[in-house]
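ARCHIVE CARD
CATEGORY: sequence design from structure
SOURCE FIELD: tokenized fold
FIELD CONTENT:
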């Protein structure tokens, strides 16, 4: 947490306001946060009661909205949902804003993430270019409002990108060393095990409405990455388990249809060509933000 706090203080473009939500910490986090807030008037801490368990997905977004409820979005141009387990390069936010100003259709963006393994090697978390990273979800307020905000469920950080693209926005993560940041806890891990995290991902893909053939193909690809084979099988278990239970899916049927069509096209055209076609086709539905 201190590394995240220090990397934010060191930013060349600091946020006008940073609301940190303490979601029921039972260690010395409250005192550390209070110390930083006392030193920097742009940092505010919101304290929530401990819910008694970790709730990845819905719990994360509930905490996000607990912070968002304390500000007036109309006062700002950009917002960021930021995890407190990141180490950001000093020019991170300045670099994102420069790129967004250069292309007004970019609605949500991020750099790329990596983690450092036990041998000290930097390992890419393999974020696709057409998705922004959930750990550092940087958005135009106008885009955030138009997509209806974040869904309070697992896969919220994929649903927002698809919804934005459907409405004519661009979603992107840039492969630039100046925007690369360290994830201090590997993405997709869980308080139980990395396999629980993979199963959660599979459930989220089902919830989003992912095409079964596409998801099976991606799960097979995941078998080639640690944890080998079992990680991919765990994602399939999460997806198939949700399907077997007939678990509820995201309520926007048009978006689910859009996601499946996108994924089927990706299987035979690839992501880059599919995204380029959608962005060109959807340029006419994009609404220029006012102000």
């Amino acid at each position: 947490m201190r590394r995240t706090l220090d990397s934010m203080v060191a930013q060349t473009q600091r946020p006008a306001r940073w609301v940190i939500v303490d979601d029921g910490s039972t260690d010395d986090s409250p005192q550390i946060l209070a110390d930083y807030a006392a030193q920097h008037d742009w940092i505010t801490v919101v304290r929530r009661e401990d819910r008694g368990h970790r709730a990845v997905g819905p719990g994360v977004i509930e905490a996000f909205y607990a912070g968002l409820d304390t500000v007036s979005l109309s006062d700002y141009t950009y917002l960021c949902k930021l995890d407190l387990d990141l180490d950001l390069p000093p020019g991170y936010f300045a670099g994102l804003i420069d790129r967004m100003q250069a292309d007004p259709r970019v609605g949500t963006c991020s750099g790329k993430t990596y983690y450092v393994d036990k041998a000290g090697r930097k390992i890419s978390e393999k974020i696709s270019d057409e998705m922004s990273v959930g750990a550092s979800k940087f958005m135009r307020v106008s885009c955030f409002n138009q997509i209806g905000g974040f869904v309070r469920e697992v896969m919220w950080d994929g649903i927002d990108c698809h919804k934005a693209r459907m409405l004519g926005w661009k979603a992107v993560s840039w492969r630039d060393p100046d925007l690369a940041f360290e994830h201090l806890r590997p993405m997709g891990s869980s308080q139980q095990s990395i396999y629980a995290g993979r199963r959660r991902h599979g459930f989220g893909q089902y919830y989003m409405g992912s095409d079964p053939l596409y998801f099976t193909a991606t799960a097979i690809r995941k078998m080639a990455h640690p944890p080998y084979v079992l990680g991919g099988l765990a994602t399939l278990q999460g997806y198939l388990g949700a399907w077997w239970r007939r678990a509820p899916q995201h309520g926007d049927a048009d978006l689910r249809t859009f996601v499946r069509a996108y994924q089927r096209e990706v299987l035979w055209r690839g992501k880059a060509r599919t995204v380029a076609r959608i962005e060109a086709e959807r340029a006419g539905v994009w609404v220029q933000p006012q102000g």
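CARD ANNOTATION: Residues 253-269 form the longest helix (17 residues). The beta strands are 18-23, 43-48, 78-82, 86-87, 106-110, 113-116, 122-124, 136-140, 170-173, 181-183.
SHELF: design records, drawer C
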